[in-house]
Design a protein that fits this description.
By secondary structure, this protein is an alpha+beta fold. It has 2 domains: about 90 residues, Phosphorylase Kinase, domain 1; about 180 residues, Aminoglycoside phosphotransferase (APH), C-terminal lobe (Aminoglycoside 3'-phosphotransferase, Chain: A, domain 2), CATH 3.90.1200. The protein contains 10 helices and 7 strands. The chain starts with 12 loop residues before the first helix and ends with a helix.
Length: about 290
């Protein structure tokens, strides 16, 4: 199952068909269609008209199926926008090594800068979604180690290496200055809150404002990345005002946008022009603020 270039499992329609048919025979007759472009964390197939199958591509995504199956049905009633609710978790099989998920399908078009960047209304909608997400506080969540996200400082070595790697493409001095500032401001010192954890254009649908979610717990600054992937300066200001973001959290958010943008750029830009365009904008907008 492993590819020749890395340890990631090979995933194709034949494998997904066998997994679904064996573990969820009630859906064995439903057609499968690969969703393109593929995401960096999951391979996604549409299953019939109402379902999707999501299979992790690498070890960093393998805990999401169980976590989403437990929490998204509980979160959904408290959120102003639709999220995809999992209906089953599959087991490893046929050489595929990790748990995988079947979720409800949400119709819509992937959000783009062209359609939403200048929309302050959309920016406020996203802020209201994040505010509602942060207000959700079930009693059994606070002590769960598996819901605690990594701090920004954990990305220090990789981010500085990426800055050096792309120093001929982007302003290395400006990137280093922003990164130092993001690490130097006080961290999140309030009670931990829910955050999306992967809040960018690829996970936002424009039909009825629907989006797909990957949920984590901790400092919500990473969700501010969407302000730099999707928004213009004007709509970004509306987003920040609606969410009530303080200066330190905003600076950390810029740091998250820089770090994640650099990670994706150095990993995929050379072979994927779409990622190159998206991450170039993300890095540039993060530097602007």
């Amino acid at each position: 199952m492993a590819s020749t270039t890395d340890s990631r499992p090979s995933i194709d329609a034949a494998l997904v068909r066998r997994l679904v048919d064996a573990q969820f025979p009630q859906w064995a007759e439903l057609p499968l269609k690969l969703l393109e472009p593929a995401g960096s964390d999951h391979v996604i197939y549409r299953l019939g008209e109402e379902l999707s199958v999501r299979l992790p591509r690498h070890t960093g995504a393998i805990g999401q199926a169980e976590k989403e199956y437990e929490w998204l049905p509980r979160l959904a009633p408290h959120l102003p926008l639709a999220i995809p609710v999992p209906v089953g978790v599959g087991e490893p099989g046929y050489g595929y090594p990790w748990p995988w998920a079947v979720s409800r399908w949400l119709d819509g078009e992937v959000a783009t800068v062209e359609t939403l960047a200048s929309s302050s209304e959309a920016a406020v909608e996203l802020a209201e979604f994040l505010a509602a997400l942060q207000r959700f506080a079930p009693e059994d969540a606070g002590a769960r180690d598996d819901l605690t996200g990594r701090p920004l400082a954990d990305r220090d070595r990789a981010t500085r290496a990426a800055i050096a790697q792309v120093s001929t493409t982007f302003d290395a001095e400006a990137m280093t200055e922003l990164w130092d500032a993001a690490l130097s401001v006080p961290g999140w010192d309030r009670p931990p809150v829910w955050y999306h954890g992967d809040f960018h254009t690829g996970n936002l649908l424009t039909a009825d404002g629907r989006l797909s979610a990957v949920i984590d717990f901790g400092d919500p600054a990473c969700d501010l990345t969407v302000a730099f992937t999707l928004m213009s300066a004007e709509s970004r200001a509306a987003f920040r005002a609606a969410l009530g973001v303080d200066d330190d959290t905003w600076t950390r958010g810029r740091g998250w946008a820089l770090a994640t943008g650099l990670n994706a750029y150095t990993s995929y830009a050379a072979t994927n022009s779409r990622v190159a365009t998206q991450t170039t904008r993300q890095i540039t907008e993060a530097l602007i603020g």
